[in-house]
What does this fold into?
Amino acid sequence: MENLKLILTRAAFAMGGLAGVTAMTAAPAAYAQSEAAPSIREIEVIVEGGYRPRRIVIREGEKVRLRFIRRDHGPCTREVVFPGLGIRRELPTHQPVVIELPALKAGEYELRCGMNMVRGELIVEK
It folds into this structure.
């Protein structure tokens, strides 16, 4: 019985040791992949009587995903428009709508409702 325990302990140690070696050799490749893939920042925008936040500040060239959640039921905020970027999207009530922005140069970009009554701004800093 002691011999069986010793054999099982050694086998477990050997398997654990091999798993550790595999994890250590795989880690640098996984790390390199995460370094190569740029992260995308997601910003939630609540649409309810206006845009919250009304002013969105990002960095030049930053990859950004805007996630709009419309809580209004009126027709004014039914869509969001970025005139300077050529983007127009419908915003169904209580359904998240994601807009991935291209890498932008420094400047100010307007966002507004389809009726041009509710407005916000996207500020891109250097």
